[in-house]
Amino acid sequence: MRFWRASAGSRSQLSRLAQRLPTMSWRRGWAAVAAAAAILALASAAAAGAFSGAAPSRLQALRTAARPAGSAARPAAPAGQAAVPAGQLRTSCTSVAHIGDSTSVDLISDSMLPDPAQQLTAQYSDAGVQHLLMDASGGRSIVEELPGQVNGYNVALNWRNQGYRGCWVFALGTNDAANVSVGSSVGIMARIQEMMSVAHGEPVMWVNTVTQLSSGPWAEANEQAWDNALVSALARYPNMRIFNWAAVAKPGWFLSDGIHYNSAGCAARAQAIADALARAFPARGHSSSQIVG
Fold first, then answer.
1. How far is the C-alpha of 62 from the C-alpha of 55, rounded, in Å?
2. Which pairing describes strands 131-136 and 204-207: parallel, antiparallel, or unpaired?
3. N or C: which end of the chain has fewer CB within 10 A?
4. Domain spanning 2-292: CATH superfamily
């Protein structure tokens, strides 16, 4: 399997912090999150110098988080989806372009997943993916950008313009939900539509979002608003599927920030994303639902 991946190089404490924190728009001085923005600005600047030979946007990946007990119900996965054991599923998507934020970074990280067989690239390969493009960046959203970073839409558009054709996995939304909650002029549905426009009807699987936070920009209520919009978008896009990660994530997989995952959570998430792709776009037949779990 061929895939693009930058060399991580040495990491300072601040570069690790940059990977651990999602972020709002660098260009907007929202008072409600000014302190967090300042921390992320410093961390991002340090990260830019800590990695050799590649921009920060190419070196970091998506991390999404899990829902606390008692939160509002999410769409349930259709009955009967577990007929094929996890890890034995195969997808018709032999070419995949995966775009993510910090919750994807750890899925290709030797420090979080020292066993290469557990990393997302290997899991995709096991599911039948032969050609993988991956771009994951800490703090990434579809619209806003950190210095030296390319937002999710432009990553997808650049690949499309370079001739990529195949399936898409969008593991984005955690930061978009936060950005919208603090005043972005670009709404949730507009962000989803922007990403879908790049696919031009090709298969797309979104990984939905979840946190364990009860307040602030990344509060679970904001993430659920994002997930609800994804469900609403299904009626418009027959090529779209949603992996209901929010219904899979377990409290014990989260780090203390309530957003990112520990090694056990990363391993589970990597396998779950690859298996979900095979359920969404199976090698034989068709998915039984636009929402897979």
1. 16
2. unpaired
3. N
4. SGNH hydrolase (3.40.50.1110)
